[in-house]
Amino acid sequence: MSNFPKLGILGGGQLGKMLCQAASEWHLPVYVLDKDESFPAAPYATVFERGNFRDYDDVIAFARNLDVVTIEIEHIDTEALHKLEKQGVKVYPQPDKIDLIKDKGLQKQFYVEHGIATTDFKLYGTKEEVNRAVEKGELHPPFVQKTRTGGYDGQGVAVIRYREDVPDKLLDGPCLVEDMADIDKELAVVVARSATGEVKVFPTVEMEFHPTANLVEFLICPAALDGDTDGRASKLAVDVVQQMEIVGLLAVELFLTNDGELLVNEVAPRPHNSGHHTIEACATSQYEQHLRAILGLPLGDPSLLRPAAMINLLGAEGHTGPTYYDGWTDVLAIPEVHPHLYGKADTRPFRKMGHLTALGDTVAMARERAARAQSMLKIIAREA
Amino acid sequence: MSNFPKLGILGGGQLGKMLCQAASEWHLPVYVLDKDESFPAAPYATVFERGNFRDYDDVIAFARNLDVVTIEIEHIDTEALHKLEKQGVKVYPQPDKIDLIKDKGLQKQFYVEHGIATTDFKLYGTKEEVNRAVEKGELHPPFVQKTRTGGYDGQGVAVIRYREDVPDKLLDGPCLVEDMADIDKELAVVVARSATGEVKVFPTVEMEFHPTANLVEFLICPAALDGDTDGRASKLAVDVVQQMEIVGLLAVELFLTNDGELLVNEVAPRPHNSGHHTIEACATSQYEQHLRAILGLPLGDPSLLRPAAMINLLGAEGHTGPTYYDGWTDVLAIPEVHPHLYGKADTRPFRKMGHLTALGDTVAMARERAARAQSMLKIIAREA
């Protein structure tokens, strides 16, 4: 395929899988590096290579014949990526941007330095420092403690509600502590910036979290916002991606406070859970948009064509073992419901096993369909 | 994946590829049999097996661990499929239905016997018989001669316009001869019938053919028909699939005569070129619908969500060799244009190298976008 560069993806999880699926439309050659062939992306990569994307030598060896390298997870060692960049491989998002984002402390400092509204925060070196600050009365629960690195899917975040939670519920390691923002809504805006500098922004989505798993439960698009707020959310996301000069997707998570203020919570430089619905609901999916951006192609039209509601399909509580989709047939009888399964052989409580996007004439219709599907489908452990 | 049967597809061309892509949403395990790994479906099959789907032993060996077997082309030897059916493998479409359809003579006789309107025809055993009928004055050009078996993508069809075309332009072998129907429009209706007997019909599409290559050039949906005609077209397709008792998709090609009569031209028991647009334009794609039908799952909603125009992407005239997509970047700048490339390493004149679906607020908008893309993209031969 003489037109197309060879693309490598570090990570073969569901985001890597969905990038492979998007690439399949153009028959784009995609190489994926991850531990073993049980990973979601493996069957849909042109070439799947076993290896550890956190290992310097594995990454260098993986990229030896590739033209462009991207990631599906930012919590990686970027040393090899810096080396590849020096060797002339296009690495998008750029390694220095990944370094900035994966350390939540640096990320927050970037916002402060660039005049981007974010929640107030303080940095601490250790759990003990946080404990001391509480004991001295400098820091008062409720607050949110986040480890500076390694947080993902609700990991690395502690919500400290009461004085008695300290020190037992505190997390180890360098961290930041934020006030509990006075939040009306949690929003996300996925924005793309191409290697050519072109920027396009997807419609704002509204998120609701599962009460115990700290994972997004419902995502609706369009968000129920007045036009002014919606416009400000898009503009803020564009501002962040342009100031960071990221190439690729940037998912910008925002808080809308009860005062109507928009604050950046955090960002991810890759396809994001809050953009899954774009596969069916938008003129261009976030996955195709990421490919366009990192390959320097014109960005696609991000318009929403149809209201959508998305749910993550999580492993049922109390079930660990071989995956079984109970209620599968019933779910498929609901119109405009699109389940995506990630093919994980084993389930465990709250594991992300797939997602499901429902469309409808209105958000209410889409959401009702998604909720109906959710009530029918249980991902449980059962031998075949 | 304990819920899912193991599915096999005979044939790894673009239709097989798009079945694999649809199956990837559910992470359904798909086995594909075809000659070698250069075939379009190979990178997207869970398991790709080298072999000849026209070879009895290869097919039997391929299916030894499979639960359900389907096809992406009906011009195959069905002996192995009959054997598999006897062994308890679910073969959809059923082998006897494939036998019926792949012989255009038997197919036409079926329509006559079941009161399904079709063009008038006569069967002949050889080219010489056709020649004699013309010489005797029993048969008068213009007419269309079709070989009873082996016709595909414009192969096996001769349009005999003048007396002087006989015998030189006649095709060899058993054939049928049809009147040149007095055609206003050529239509296609893709309909699905599930293993459970459920039937759902996709919206009618209107086709326009390339003037020399005898391949569909433009496909538009919805077709420009009055409601009565459109309803009759859907009803006719449902009638055919129910009378044939096919399990899976059936693409029903229809002629609308200048008198407003609808005649069945021919059918194909598989995903069809006239259903490519369903990937982006309909609530359920024809590929997912075929999977649902043959797996006995509830059929999806076939509603058109957005007007569409589809073009086949053909190899440029005068170009044979390594494929190069000239104008690729420009095409991607057009909104709501979805090119699908089949990854064929070599191009040749009029070879089907891909297709492209454009959406829009209206058919006119979709068609203008598709035409613009077509004028920009040339699939040529060029070394990398």
UniProtKB/TrEMBL annotation, chains A, B:
Source organism of this protein record: Neolewinella xylanilytica
Family as reported in the entry's similarity comment: Belongs to the PurK/PurT family.
Protein name, per record: N5-carboxyaminoimidazole ribonucleotide synthase
Protein keywords: ATP-binding, Ligase, Nucleotide-binding, Purine biosynthesis
GO molecular function: 5-(carboxyamino)imidazole ribonucleotide synthase activity; ATP binding; metal ion binding; phosphoribosylaminoimidazole carboxylase activity
Metabolic or biological pathway: Purine metabolism; IMP biosynthesis via de novo pathway; 5-amino-1-(5-phospho-D-ribosyl)imidazole-4-carboxylate from 5-amino-1-(5-phospho-D-ribosyl)imidazole (N5-CAIR route): step 1/2
Family annotation (NCBIfam families): PRK06019.1-5, purK
Record function comment: Catalyzes the ATP-dependent conversion of 5-aminoimidazole ribonucleotide (AIR) and HCO(3)- to N5-carboxyaminoimidazole ribonucleotide (N5-CAIR). Catalyzes the ATP-dependent conversion of 5-aminoimidazole ribonucleotide (AIR) and HCO(3)(-) to N5-carboxyaminoimidazole ribonucleotide (N5-CAIR).
Matches recorded under InterPro entries: ATP-grasp, ATP-grasp_carboxylate-amine, ATP_grasp_subdomain_1, PreATP-grasp_dom_sf, PurK, PurK_C, PurT/PurK_preATP-grasp, Rudment_hybrid_motif
Quaternary state and interactors: Homodimer.
Gene Ontology biological process: 'de novo' IMP biosynthetic process
Domain ATP-grasp, residue spans: 108-295
GO cellular component: cytosol
Binding-site residues for ATP, renumbered to this chain: K104, K146, E186, N265, E266
Reactions listed under catalytic activity: 5-amino-1-(5-phospho-beta-D-ribosyl)imidazole + hydrogencarbonate + ATP = 5-carboxyamino-1-(5-phospho-D-ribosyl)imidazole + ADP + phosphate + 2 H(+)
Entry EC number(s): 6.3.4.18
